[in-house]
Design brief:
- α1 packs across α3, α1 packs antiparallel against α10 and α13 crosses α18.
- The protein is about 40% helix and about 15% strand.
- A hairpin with a 2-residue loop joins β7 and β8.
- The protein is elongated.
- It folds into three domains: about 325 residues, 3-Layer(aba) Sandwich (Rossmann fold), CATH 3.40.50; about 180 residues, Rossmann fold (3-Layer(aba) Sandwich); about 130 residues, 3-Layer(aba) Sandwich (Rossmann fold).
C-alpha cells in the first residue's frame, strides 16, 4: 500500500493557473446550480473538482466530439448525488450531444442553460445522472453502490470484448473503467459484493476512486462506519493507494499512473477530502445540505478570487483548459481506432460485422435457427429444464451472450455447456459462464454494466431472491437495457423448502415495474418463445420465470401454437367459438391445470375457453380489437389461476370474475399436498368455475 504524503507536492497549482480556473469554475457552477434549484448537493462536486478535472484532462481516453466510440474509457459517478460534478465536466469538456442512433444533434451534451435548469422538468441535468437522458452519462446512478456494481460489469465486458474481437495488431478493446464513489457506496452491501468479485476476477482495468470525507447525512461516519476500507480492499485482492489531499492533483496523477501500470488486480485510490472545500465560514458545508445560501456562496467565491456577484460564470480559458486537451488527446485515440477498425474490417469482415451489429443492439442472422421444439408429453418437463436447453441452443449463435447465476446454475440451468465455453476469469477471458457467487445484488448491477457495454447479459437465481436484487432490476428498466433476469423455483412448487423459498408477491412486483417484461411460460414450447422474445427486446429488460417442477407439454396439434406468447396472451383452447360461457386464464405451471379443468367443463357441456397469459406487458401492447378477441367484453365469467398473489388479476377477471391464487405464504410439504391445501387441483378449479356460472351440475 502506498501513501502519498506532504513530500509529494501537496500544492501543484497557483491561483492564477488555468487549471485552478477550471476547477473553480466547476465548483462555482455546482454552487450556483444548487442554489437556483434550491435542491441538490454542492459539497462533493466542490471537493472532488480537482481530481475530476485532472482525471478527465490528462487520463480519461475520451473524445468529446464522438462520445460513443467503442473503446472510450468509461467514467462512472457512483456517488450520483454529486451529479453537478459530472455536468460541470461535460460542459467544460464541450462534449457533443448524440441522439439515440448515435447521430450528432449539433447541440452540447450539457449547455450552460442546462446547468441553469438543474433538477427541473425536462432538463438534461436531472438530480442524479440518467443514462439516455444526458450524453456522456454511462449509467444511471443515485442509489448508492449501483454504479460500483455497474463498473465491474463494464470492466468484465472490456475483457470479454477483447477476447472475442482483438487480433494480433488489432487491439480494438482495452478501455479502462474509472469510478468516483463515496462513504455511502462503501457502506452499501452491493458495492462490497461487487468489489469482492472484482478482486476474485483480478480485473486490472478497474479503478475506484473513493472520496473518504468522513461525512454522511446524519453526521460523521464514525456514527456507523469505522472500518479500515483500505485493508478490507487489500483483503479483496485490490491494489490500494492513499491520497492525503484531494487538491493534490500531481499526487493524484501519480496514483493513476500506478493504476495504469498494474496488470494483475483492480485498484482503489482512497482520496481524503474536506467536503464543501472553499467555504470560509466554519460549519456551513454539510454533506447533503441543499442550497448553501447567497451569503455563504458570495464568501466562498471571494475566497476563490471569484467575482462575488457572478453567477454561472464560465471563463473561456476554463473551457479551453479542459476541452482542448481532451479533444486533442481523445480525438487522436479515436481517430487511430477508426483507422485501425477500417483495416480490421478488411481483414476480419465477419467479426467487424458482428461487432457493428452488437453496437446497434442487433442479433446475428439465424440466431434462432436451432431453437428446439418439444413433443406433447403428459408428464412434461420443468420449464427451467426447457430453458436450459433453449439457452444452449441460442448461445453458439450469439457470441456476446454471457451470464450465470448466484451460485445456483445447477438449479437454474443457466450454465452454457456447448463446446468448451468455460468460466470467465483471469485465466480464461473467453469464458462465458459467470460465477457470481452468492451475490444476487451485485449480480444484477454487474449484468447492467455488461449490457451497457454491448454484451447480452443474463442472470439466474430463485425467484424469491428477487428481494436481494430488486434495485438493479428497477434500474435496468429505467435505463431501458435488455438484461435477461432468469428466475426459477417460481411458486409453491418449490415444495419442501417451505415459505422462505416460495415466492408469493413477486409476480405482482415484477409486473408493476414500468418497462419490464415479465414472462411466465406455461410449458416447454412457450419457454422457447419466451427466450425468443427476450433476446429480441432491445430497450427493455426481461424477467423469465420458470418452474422447478415438471409441467405437461401441451399438444399443439390440438391447442393453439405457442407463438401466441408473443402477444402476451392468446386463446389456447375454446369451446363455443366466440361465445364462451367462461374464460379460464392460466399462466406458468398453472396453464396446463387450466387446460385440464377446461376439458372437464367441456365434458359437462359448458362452453369454456382457456387463455394462456404469460406476459401482461406484451398483452398491454396489443390493440383493443385483439384484447377484445381474447377477452370478449360480454363474457364476464372469468377465472384466473396462478400460484402467486392475487394483486393485478382484477384487471383481467373483472368485477364479476374470480381468482384461485395465494392469499398467504406457502408451507413446507410435498408439492401434491401443497396443491391440495391451496386449491390448485382440477376438481377445485372446476368447482369454482361452476359456482361462478351458478351451475351445480
Amino acid at each position: 500500500m502506498t501513501t502519498y504524503t506532504e513530500e509529494l507536492a501537496p500544492s501543484v497549482h497557483d491561483d492564477s493557473s488555468s487549471e485552478r480556473l477550471a476547477i473553480d469554475t466547476i465548483r462555482t457552477l455546482a454552487m450556483d446550480a444548487v442554489q437556483r434549484a434550491n435542491s441538490g448537493h454542492p459539497g462533493t462536486p466542490m471537493a472532488l473538482a480537482p481530481i475530476g478535472f485532472k482525471l478527465w484532462r490528462d487520463y480519461l481516453r475520451y473524445d468529446p466530439t464522438n462520445p460513443d466510440w467503442a473503446n472510450r474509457d468509461r467514467f462512472v459517478l457512483s456517488v450520483g448525488h454529486a451529479s453537478m460534478l459530472l455536468y460541470g465536466l461535460l460542459h467544460l469538456a464541450a462534449v457533443q450531444e448524440i441522439d439515440a442512433e448515435g447521430n450528432k444533434t449539433g447541440e452540447p451534451a450539457v449547455s450552460l442553460n442546462d446547468i441553469k435548469n438543474f433538477r427541473q422538468i425536462g432538463s438534461k441535468t436531472p438530480g442524479h445522472p440518467e443514462y439516455r437522458i444526458t450524453t456522456g452519462v454511462e449509467t444511471t446512478t443515485g442509489p448508492l453502490g449501483q454504479g460500483c456494481g455497474n463498473s465491474v460489469g463494464m470492466a468484465i465486458a472490456a475483457q470479454a470484448l477483447a477476447s472475442r474481437f482483438n487480433r494480433p495488431g488489432f487491439d480494438l478493446f482495452d478501455f479502462d473503467v474509472y469510478v468516483f464513489c463515496s462513504d455511502g457506496d462503501m457502506m452499501e452491501g452491493v458495492a462490497q459484493e461487487a468489489a469482492s468479485l472484482a478482486g476474485q476476477l483480478a480485473l486490472p482495468n478497474l479503478c475506484w476512486i473513493y472520496d473518504d470525507n468522513h461525512v454522511t447525512i446524519e453526521g460523521k461516519t464514525m456514527l456507523a462506519f469505522s472500518e479500515d476500507v483500505g485493508k478490507k480492499f487489500e483483503a479483496y485482492g485490490w491494489q490500494v493507494i492513499h491520497l492525503n489531499d484531494a487538491n493534490d492533483t500531481q499526487a493524484f496523477g501519480e496514483a493513476i499512473e500506478r493504476f495504469k501500470a498494474t496488470d494483475e488486480k483492480p485498484t482503489m485510490i482512497i482520496v481524503h477530502s474536506i467536503i464543501g472545500y472553499g467555504s470560509p465560514i466554519e460549519g456551513t458545508s454539510k454533506a447533503h445540505s441543499d442550497a448553501m445560501g447567497e451569503d455563504v456562496i458570495r464568501a466562498t467565491k471571494k475566497a476563490y478570487g471569484w467575482p462575488e456577484d457572478a453567477q454561472f460564470r464560465v471563463p473561456e480559458e476554463a473551457m479551453r483548459a479542459l476541452a482542448k486537451p481532451m479533444r486533442e488527446r481523445g480525438g487522436k485515440s479515436r481517430q487511430n481506432w477508426d483507422a485501425m477498425f477500417a483495416r480490421y474490417r478488411e481483414q476480419y469482415a465477419e467479426l467487424a460485422e458482428e461487432l457493428e451489429r452488437a453496437r446497434r443492439g442487433e442479433l446475428p442472422d439465424g440466431w434462432d435457427e436451432d431453437l428446439p421444439s418439444f413433443d406433447p408429453d403428459e408428464k412434461g418437463i420443468a420449464s427451467r429444464e426447457a430453458s436450459g436447453k433453449v439457452l444452449n441452443a441460442i448461445a453458439p449463435h450469439v457470441s456476446l451472450l454471457m451470464g450465470g447465476a448466484a451460485d445456483l446454475s445447477p438449479s437454474t440451468k443457466t450454465n452454457l455447456k456447448y463446446a468448451d465455453v468455460g468460466a470467465f476469469g483471469s485465466g480464461n477471458l473467453a469464458g462465458r459462464n459467470m460465477h457470481f457467487g452468492v451475490r444476487e445484488h451485485a449480480m444484477g448491477a454487474i449484468a447492467n454494466g455488461m449490457a451497457l457495454s454491448y454484451m447480452r447479459s443474463y442472470t439466474g437465481t430463485f425467484l424469491v431472491f428477487l428481494d436481494y436484487m430488486r434495485p438493479p432490476v428497477r434500474l435496468a428498466a429505467i435505463m431501458e437495457v435488455p438484461v435477461i433476469f432468469v428466475y426459477t423455483h417460481d411458486s409453491i412448487g418449490v415444495g419442501e423448502d417451505g415459505p422462505t423459498h416460495q415466492p408469493i408477491e413477486h409476480f405482482a412486483l415484477l409486473r408493476s415495474t414500468p418497462g419490464l417484461d415479465m414472462i411466465r411460460p406455461g410449458d416447454a414450447n412457450e419457454t422457447v418463445e419466451a427466450w425468443r422474445v427476450a433476446l429480441s427486446h432491445t430497450h427493455e429488460p426481461t424477467a423469465l420465470i420458470f418452474s422447478r417442477q415438471a409441467i405437461p407439454t401441451i399438444d399443439r396439434s390440438k391447442y393453439a401454437d405457442a407463438s401466441g406468447l408473443t402477444k402476451g396472451a392468446y386463446v389456447l383452447a375454446s369451446e363455443g367459438d366466440d361465445n364462451p360461457e367462461i374464460i379460464l386464464i392460466g399462466t406458468g405451471s398453472e396453464m396446463p391445470l387450466a387446460v385440464a379443468a377446461h376439458e372437464e367443463l367441456v365434458a359437462r357441456g359448458i362452453k369454456s375457453r382457456v387463455v394462456s397469459m404469460p406476459s401482461f406487458y406484451l398483452f398491454e401492447k396489443q390493440d383493443q380489437a385483439y384484447k377484445d378477441s381474447v377477452f370478449p367484453p360480454s363474457v364476464t365469467a372469468r377465472l384466473a389461476v396462478e400460484q402467486g398473489g392475487e394483486f393485478g388479476w382484477d384487471r383481467y377477471v373483472g368485477p364479476e370474475g374470480k381468482t384461485i391464487t395465494m392469499s398467504t405464504f406457502g408451507a413446507s410439504a410435498p408439492l401434491k399436498k401443497l396443491q391440495e391445501k391451496f386449491g390448485f387441483t382440477v376438481d377445485h378449479v372446476v368447482e369454482v368455475a361452476c359456482n361462478l356460472l351458478k351451475r351445480g351440475d
